[in-house]
Design brief:
Two copies of one chain form a homodimer.
Chain A (H helix, E strand, L loop, with lengths): L3 H13 L9 H11 L6 H14 L6 H22 L3 E2 L2 E2 L1 H4 L2 H19 L4 H28 L7 H26 L4 H28 L2 H4 L5 H4 L5 H9 L1 H11 L5 H13 L2 H21 L5 H15 L4
Antiparallel strand pairs in A: 1-2
Chain lengths: ~325, ~325
């Protein structure tokens, strides 16, 4: 096994080498190239490459499907940014603010088809399974996004519903990435399914940690301003769990969430979370899902070397504030 | 061979039988069911079924891919209506006006993935070819839509560029439908490619006729108000060809196109088209592309019976105002 950073460098190089039609069709493809150059951890293609290598020692065969998975992820970002009217992502203007919403919609559609093409670049013997995995994870992602949008109009969200949403919106794509990597590596159907389970649980742990960092992280290492979720009244693990706890603190929290966006609101909500012990609760929940992810790995036929690589990946992602 | 109306009835029944998840996910799937119930000619799935039958006597094997092709078409309508801010389609509120733009974007994305799943419901032996055909036609459709959007900001469009746009935006999906039907029917690669060519040429003939009917048709049989394209200064075959002819009439046309939308403008532009003999020019151009479509059919190994069925289809579509 290589180090995680080596897999992500492989993915990054393949993404940089993407070539799009120029000339008259630049208006369609330039926003796609721009969207793919956003950088970031490249977690999803890394998971494809790493898993293909873990099962079959063949990361190269997984390069184009890995880029396809990243293309799918970036397609969802283009459309999510239109739906959320977000102007910035990782410090750069989003496609819909740099160009316009129609461009983000149409170039996003194009990315979904390009992603399907890239992911389908596998041996004929596994094409059906890879394609089904890809399409099914995609449907789960849309379902998760729909639930997340519906949550915006609900005063309270049940914790189970929140976790179900995260499993779909964030977990399914990580699950799909790991399963597709496993299929390319020649894993058995059982092992491929376990890797899907691993990815979903990793996704939940990752999202809970991300919710935590949005309130309790360090702006420099987190990459965006702290408190954005609080200002937007976003349903996060912290908010859903704190309100579900009930009592005077939950009531105080509901009142604080009605404050106008700004530093006072961020400070008030953060203080209530601290009073309720939410940082430790959040860390424990993320750790519990990390354990579930690792448990899925342990059920596979993977070598100790590979298991250790996944343990390090989890640590890197979920313990990344430490 | 069955009659065209029998293939379209088969497609309609299969579309009516579609079953979507209910409950919490209704917000995602109800707009899809609504979009699929729009009715219409069901031309694209009809072409899949008819062509599978023509080559292999197996329309039933093509039912789900046929519905997939219609799902793809309806996905493009959902997104096009957002981009065009259209509130009505076939006399019903569009998805984005009945729900909202975000719903149309997300449910549209879901339709594209569902379409890919449905189209992939073919024998493993032809999965790769069918999938490639589907994805490549999809890219052509996006490219055509992009060019059409870009034309809106251009004063003049060259006739060749207009035809190229139509081949992509309208022709590619008809080509893809015919080719996928051929592949399901067991056609040779050569015959499948000829059926693609047939579909593209049929698409161009169909669009030129549609442009004609928007100005010179009968509102009752055409299904929407006459003159909409003129009011919207839409680049149509009539406009592009008339302006390309140059001279005093073209200058008069440019002036008339600057009039405010309304009956006076429609009448003025229509009269100039008539003075220029555009109805006959348009009919001749549509007939020329119909001939190209038929020529592609004649190059295949299809029986006389099948050829006659395609001839009738062309007559029905392109001669449908007669």
């Amino acid at each position: 096994m290589k180090r995680v950073s080596e897999y992500s460098a492989l993915a990054e190089a393949e993404i940089r080498a993407l070539d799009f039609p120029k000339g008259k069709l630049d208006a369609l493809y330039a926003p796609i190239a721009y969207g793919m150059q956003a950088g970031g951890k490249r977690l999803r293609p890394t998971l494809v490459l790493m898993t293909a290598d873990a099962f079959g020692k063949c990361p190269d065969k997984a390069l184009r499907p890995a880029v396809g998975i990243e293309m799918f992820h970036n397609f969802t970002l283009l459309h999510d940014d239109v739906m959320d009217k977000s102007d910035l992502r990782r410090g750069r203007p989003t496609v819909h603010s740099k160009w316009d919403a129609n461009t983000a919609i149409l170039s996003g559609d194009t990315m979904l088809t390009l992603a399907t093409k890239l992911v389908s670049d596998v041996d004929d013997s596994i094409l059906r399974q890879v394609l089904d995995t890809f399409n099914n994870q995609a449907l789960r992602v849309y379902e998760g996004q729909r639930l997340d949008m519906d949550f915006e109009n609900q005063d309270e969200v049940a914790l189970d519903d929140y976790i179900e949403m995260i499993k779909a919106k964030t977990g399914a794509l990580l699950g799909g990435a790991a399963k597709i990597g496993a299929l390319i590596g020649g894993a058995s159907k059982e092992d491929a399914d376990r890797m899907y389970e691993f990815g979903v649980m990793l996704g939940v742990a990752f999202q809970i940690e991300d919710d935590y960092l949005d309130t309790f992280g360090n702006a420099d290492t987190f990459g965006k301003p702290i408190g954005g979720d609080i200002n937007n009244n976003k349903k996060t693990f912290l908010m859903v769990k704190a309100i579900a706890s009930g009592g005077a603190n939950a009531e105080a929290l509901k009142a604080a969430l009605k404050l106008p966006a700004g530093p006072t609101k961020i400070k008030a909500v953060t203080r209530i979370y601290e009073t309720m012990g939410m940082p430790a609760v959040s860390k424990a929940e993320a750790a519990a899902y990390s354990s579930k992810a690792l448990a899925a790995i342990k059920k596979t036929s993977l070598s100790d070397d590979a298991r250790e690589a996944y343990r390090k990946l989890i640590e890197k992602l979920v313990g990344r504030s430490k």
